[in-house]
Design brief:
This protein is mainly beta and 48 residues long. The chain is built from one helix and three strands. It starts with a helix and ends in an 8-residue tail after the last strand.
């Protein structure tokens, strides 16, 4: 998210943990398009 800010984008949801092994953040680019970035550590996600 530091690179987003340095490039002039707007971070509207700072990186945070959404559950065990799930992380996300959101930002808007210079054209105003909104992006969601998600990461899931599959070995930590319950399948039951």
């Amino acid at each position: 998210m530091n690179q987003v800010k340095e490039a002039g984008g707007t971070v509207f949801s700072e990186p945070r943990e959404h559950g065990p092994g799930m992380y996300g953040a959101s930002f808007a680019d210079l054209d105003g398009h909104r992006w969601n970035v998600l990461y899931m550590e599959m070995r930590l996600i319950s399948t039951e």
